[in-house]
Structures are given as structure tokens and as C-alpha cells.
Write a structure and sequence with these properties.
The chain has 281 residues and is of the alpha/beta class. 40% of the residues lie in helices and 23% in strands.
């Protein structure tokens, strides 16, 4: 067939853009590393197991307020060691398979994190991520420097989401929780404990929070052209004073409370997404 005239082609493109602009958010995939982190939101939304993900991945699906399709995907237990498969490999693979399987409009990477108190983080704070980086991927070859750094900006309008989350959070949690919702840079590495070099790199980034999955999820969303929201709840302080309880003790002590905070934040963000068009996220 002959090509469309230029004017007709321009009109068709405008129509396609307009339809895209008006498209509502109808499907969300939430990627969470640990089942203990996922349990409160699975229970709250009354999600049921989905058998569409291959083993060992776990998935739970349902609808939010009858309209928004929501699926939670966890890497599941490591088939060799029997513990939650935390870290970048499992998170990236779970995200990729989840996106291919459920075709979401938006991915949310939700989970716990360590926070830097020198930049305002406190136990129980909830962060929306505006930039993702890697602090443990060191490749001393100039051409690979930016890849090793892994810097990726959020693909959603973080400031707008933060404002909406703050407003509803303060109403739901009360005056004592005011100021607990923040935004900042997340750095990712495959070790819970830090080497001196890791600390140097994280400081060079000006990191607010650190985890073991976020940047890998961001990279996977980038290559699959899927919008991403990062939500993290602080369980432990990275730059704690010497002589205080180690981070792993803080993490275990605060995991349940952080998971409940994640649940509250996720419900609020799902309400925001349900009310928005995709291009306004």
C-alpha cells in the first residue's frame, strides 16, 4: 500500500498520542524481595496465589477497589539454601518474568532498606526513590565506569507521588508521623554488610538509603520499557554510631513494623495510581 500523506500521518500520530495520554493505569506489578515484607499487603488486599510464575517464584494476584489489577511477585525461597532469594539476580529475574507474564502498566519495587541518618533518615521512614545506583559494582575500565555506577533516574513523577503520599500518610498515621515520608537516592549492593570501599562509594553518591535489589529492578524496567516506582521503608541505620547494635539486629527487630509501614504506603500509592492516567504517573 502507498504511504500515508504527511498530513494524514501527522493526524494519525496525534490521535495515537492522545489515546496514550488518556490511558488509565489498569495494572500494577509489585516486586518485593522477602515474603515477610509482602505478607501484610497480600493480606490487606486479599490477594490469592497465582500459578503463572514458574518455581521458585511466588505470585499473589487480585484487584484493588474492584478496578486496578494488582500482582505481587517475590523471588521465593532459594531452591538450594531455603531462604528468601534476596539480591540483584533474583530481583531482576523476578521482575523480568513478572513483566512478561502480567504486562503491567507500572512496576513498584517495595521493600525495606538501610538509611543514612546524616541525610535525615530514621527508623520507620518511608522513601520514594528518585534515583537508583550501584555501590558494589566496581570495574576499573574507563568505558565501563557509567555502567558500573548504574545511575538511573526514576521513570515516574516522584515529587508528585511524594506529595500525595505525605498528605494521606499524615492523615492516616497522625501528627507524630509527620515528616516520615521522604524522597531520595537509593544505592544497591549484594551485601548487607559494607566494606570500607562500599561506604566511600555510597558517600560519593550522597545516598539516602541502601538496599539489595532496587537498581536491578530499575535496570530491568528500563529494558522492558516499564514505568517504575521505588518505595522503601527504613529498618536499620547504615551510618550508626560505633558501639551501637549492629545493622542486622536492627533489621530483624524492625522488619515487621517496616512491613506494616510499606503496606500503608502501598495502599496510598495504589489509590493515587487508580485515579491517574498513565502519562501523569
Amino acid at each position: 500500500p502507498s504511504p500515508l500523506p504527511s498530513a494524514a500521518a501527522d493526524q494519525r500520530a496525534s490521535t495515537v498520542n492522545l489515546l496514550s495520554f488518556a490511558m488509565p493505569v489498569s495494572s500494577v506489578l509489585i516486586v518485593i524481595a522477602m515474603e515477610a515484607e509482602a505478607a501484610p499487603i497480600v493480606e490487606h488486599l486479599r490477594l490469592t496465589p497465582s500459578d503463572k510464575m514458574p518455581s521458585p517464584f511466588k505470585a499473589f494476584a487480585g484487584t484493588f477497589q474492584g478496578a486496578l489489577n494488582v500482582t505481587i511477585v517475590c523471588p521465593g525461597p532459594c531452591p538450594i539454601h531455603g531462604v528468601d532469594a534476596v539480591g540483584t539476580e533474583a530481583a531482576s529475574l523476578a521482575t523480568y518474568i513478572g513483566v512478561q507474564t502480567y504486562e503491567p502498566d507500572v512496576v513498584i519495587n517495595a521493600g525495606t532498606c538501610g538509611g543514612f541518618q546524616k541525610r535525615g533518615a530514621a527508623i520507620g521512614d518511608v522513601y520514594l526513590v528518585d534515583e537508583f545506583r550501584r555501590h558494589d559494582r566496581r570495574i576499573p575500565i574507563p568505558a565501563f565506569a557509567s555502567y558500573a555506577d548504574g545511575s538511573m533516574e526514576a521513570s515516574t513523577q516522584t515529587a508528585l507521588l511524594v506529595d500525595a503520599l505525605k498528605e494521606s500518610w499524615d492523615v492516616e498515621k497522625g501528627p507524630e508521623a509527620k515528616g516520615a515520608v521522604k524522597q531520595g537516592l537509593l544505592t544497591t549492593g549484594n551485601s548487607f554488610a559494607n566494606t570500607d570501599r562500599c561506604v566511600e562509594v555510597m558517600e560519593s553518591f550522597g545516598a539516602h538509603v541502601k538496599d539489595m535489589e532496587g537498581q536491578a529492578v530499575a535496570w530491568t524496567c528500563h529494558i522492558t520499557h516499564t514505568k517504575l516506582i521505588g518505595i522503601k521503608s527504613v529498618t536499620d541505620i547504615v551510618d550508626r554510631e560505633e558501639g551501637t547494635a549492629p545493622g542486622e539486629s536492627e533489621f530483624l527487630e524492625n522488619l515487621s513494623a517496616a512491613a506494616r509501614s510499606l503496606k500503608t504506603a502501598l495502599v496510598i500509592v495504589l489509590k493515587v495510581l487508580q485515579a491517574r492516567e498513565l502519562d501523569h504517573v
